[in-house]
Amino acid sequence: MESLLNVKNLSVRLHVQESLVKIVDGVDLSLNRGETIGIVGETGAGKTVTALAILGILQPLGKGKPLWEVEGEVWYKGKDLFKLSEEERRKIRGEDIALITQNPIPSLHPIEEIGWQTGEGVEAHKEDIERQKVIKLVIEHLGKVEIKDAQKRFHNFREQFSGGEGQRILIAMSLIRNPALLVADEPTSALDVTVQRQILELLKAMKEQFKLSMLLITHNIAVVAEMCDHVYVMYAGKIAEHGDVKAIFYEPTHPFTRGLLTATPTLEGKSFKFEGIPGEPPNPLHPISGCRFHPRCKYAELICSKEEPPLIEVKPGHRVACLRINEVLASQN
């Protein structure tokens, strides 16, 4: 398959007072054209920071000092985005890569009409386009995401829309430029269960209609199962496990991945044994030596607190970072 996005050894550090805190550490991931990959993990794992670093839109501190330090390589359609000028990257973000943020209503401008917000990206990157064409394009895309009475509601403001409608507007806003890659950051987390289902069905339909590739960020393991071809399980800024969706769900190997799955009830007939994961996600301000999961891992031994596990291949295409991999696999049999 044709490679679209390749991320190599991505690391992100945050300036906190006079020190640097590593938020993302050596992340590798790849996405082929037409695929959906998911990054799943607990809140604070570094999922959103990874996506924003890929896009090059982490907020700077100002006054000549960056808030974030980003290292690594991000190859998109054969170009290393980190070696391009900001104007070149802005053009790619404007025409080729789109972002759907979480919390839809707060993401919209409070005193600008929804229609003009939706068409803003087109006007920003096609300065010679006529206003009437923008209006027509906006109404068309609002209709595609099932906003009723799109022509009439073009002039409404964000407070006149529900959370689900706000998410539909953000989807329309991202698709109006006909991108190749859609980055969806927790697109259903702020919505109730019924609306979540509607938005997921809409995303699947839009992916098919617009021939999209998708990078989906979520903490919801069930969303990953339904939407993704490949899964990257992230813990404390690092990839703990990576494989295709069947390998992750039917042969989970990393103790953290297994914990996520045993914390998710199923609708199958057999009885469900809830286990979950003890403890709390680590605070990046207080780095953990060795394997970052070892304080919460029932398989951990002394070596786990001293050595950082490499990401090794246990089966073709299935990689796991765990020093106690043999013991974990033996417990599955």
The third-level CATH topology is Rossmann fold
What's the assembly state of these chains?
Answer: single chain
Mean pLDDT: 90
Q: How many helices?
A: 12
Would you count the extended β strands for me?
A: 12
The structure class reads alpha/beta
pLDDT under 50 segments (min length 5)? none
Question: How much is the radius of gyration in Å?
Answer: 21 Å
Kindly report the name of the CATH homologous superfamily: P-loop containing nucleotide triphosphate hydrolases
Can you tell me the CATH class? Alpha Beta
Helix content class: 25-40%
Overview of this protein structure:
The structure is a single chain. This protein has one domain: P-loop containing nucleotide triphosphate hydrolases (Rossmann fold, 3-Layer(aba) Sandwich), CATH 3.40.50.300. Helices cover 34% and strands 24% of the residues. The chain is built from 12 helices and 12 strands. The protein has an 8-stranded mixed sheet, sandwiched between helices. The protein has a 4-stranded antiparallel sheet with strand order 2-1-4-5. The longest helix has 18 residues, at 193-210. The protein is globular. The mean pLDDT is 90.
